[in-house]
Every structure is written in structure tokens, then in C-alpha cells.
């Protein structure tokens, strides 16, 4: 199975959500947060060539000629998830033989940026994570976890709780 950045972020957010995605159950287009993200994406960094798609799998917001990969996010609420998503992109590029690429998360609404690097330890964490994602995708639907803070804004809320 090919693993994209959304799967990586769902892995950290909720394993059941990841399972829905792996089984092509998609409801995100109705989600208000995703709409806000799209508006932000269209209105930020207009001078950059955006959405660099690699292998029809990895969708990077933009890469500067200086070798810095950028992801644009609206808030820091999911900071840890976003950091791992960027680390996965760096890992993926490294596996393809592209080394020396740096990562940066841009928060235009906060006027902040955050540097993200990939360490050898991170590579090990990512390899374990990829194995686990594969296992979740091939396994039965994970039980509904104790209600998470993000459930209320999750596009799959009705599938889990109604
Ligand atoms: S509603 Fe909650 S439990 Fe269900 S998929 Fe979304 S985050 Fe996971």
C-alpha cells in the first residue's frame, strides 16, 4: 500500500479515522476546517508554485529553489501531527535519493514559521509507523476511542457516534 501524508496525519490523530481513509471512506469535503484550509492555501504565498505532487502520492504545498519544503497550516492546534507529516515528506524524498532538503511549516495567520528536520531516530520512528499503518489498513476497524477532543469537528463524527 502506498502511504500518503494524510494517512500519516490520521495515524497520529485517530487510528479509526485512518482506517476509514484506507478503505476509501471519504467525507472530508463537507468539513468546514478543510474548506478554511483551502481558502488559506489559495490566498497565501501566491508567488510560489504550489502543490508539488510526487509519485501521485506526496502533495507538498511548495518547495523553494533553496531546497526548503514548505507546508502551510492555519493554526498550531495539531502542531505535533504536522511536524510528523513534514518529517515523512523529508523521509520520502530522502528514500528517493534527495538529501539535504529541509522542512518548514508556515502559519500565515500567526505570522510564524517552524523549522523541521529529519534525524536518524525520526527515520526509525517513521519506519515503525509505516508498518503500523499497513497493519491498521489490513486489520478490522479499530474500536471507537474514548471521545477525542477533535471528534466534534471530525468529518466521520456521524459514522462513529450516530
Ligand atoms: S469521530 Fe473521533 S473516533 Fe471517529 S474517526 Fe473521527 S476522530 Fe476518530
Q: Could you describe the 3D structure shown?
A:
By secondary structure, the chain is of the alpha+beta class. It has one domain: Lambda Exonuclease, Chain A, CATH 3.90.320.10. The chain contains six helices and six strands. The strands form two sheets. The protein has a four-stranded mixed sheet with strand order 3-4-5-6. Strand 5 and strand 6 form a beta hairpin. The model has no long low-confidence stretch (mean pLDDT 89). The chain binds iron/sulfur cluster. The site of iron/sulfur cluster has 12 residues, from helix 2 and helix 6.
Number of domains: 1
CATH topology type: Lambda Exonuclease, Chain A
Give a count of the beta strands, DSSP E runs of length 2 or more: 6
The CATH architecture classification is Alpha-Beta Complex
Tell me roughly what share of residues is in helical segments. Answer: 40-55%
Q: What molecules are bound to this protein?
A: iron/sulfur cluster
- Mean pLDDT across the residues is 89
SSE inventory with pairings:
Blueprint: H1 5-13, H2 15-22, H3 32-43, E1 52-54, E2 58-60, E3 62-63, E4 68-72, H4 79-95, E5 102-107, E6 112-116, H5 120-138, H6 157-161
Parallel strand pairs: 4-5
Antiparallel strand pairs: 1-2, 3-4, 5-6
The structure holds iron/sulfur cluster.
The site of iron/sulfur cluster has 12 residues, from α2 and α6.
Amino acid at each position: 500500500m502506498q502511504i500518503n501524508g494524510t494517512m500519516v496525519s490520521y495515524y497520529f490523530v485517530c487510528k479509526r479515522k485512518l482506517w476509514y481513509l484506507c478503505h476509501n471512506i471519504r467525507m472530508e469535503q463537507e468539513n468546514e476546517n478543510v474548506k478554511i484550509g483551502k481558502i488559506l492555501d489559495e490566498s497565501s504565498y501566491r508567488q510560489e508554485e504550489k502543490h508539488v505532487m510526487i509519485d501521485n502520492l506526496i502533495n507538498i504545498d511548495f518547495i523553494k529553489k533553496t531546497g526548503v519544503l514548505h507546508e502551510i497550516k492555519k493554526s498550531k492546534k495539531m502542531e505535533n501531527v504536522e511536524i510528523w507529516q513534514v518529517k515523512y515528506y523529508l523521509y520520502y524524498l530522502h528514500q528517493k535519493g534527495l538529501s539535504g532538503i529541509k522542512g518548514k511549516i508556515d502559519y500565515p495567520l500567526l505570522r510564524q514559521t517552524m523549522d523541521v528536520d529529519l534525524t536518524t531516530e525520526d527515520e526509525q520512528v517513521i519506519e515503525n509507523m509505516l508498518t503500523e499503518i499497513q497493519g491498521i489498513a489490513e486489520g478490522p476497524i479499530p474500536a471507537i476511542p474514548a471521545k477525542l477532543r477533535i471528534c466534534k469537528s471530525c468529518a466521520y463524527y456521524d459514522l462513529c457516534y450516530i
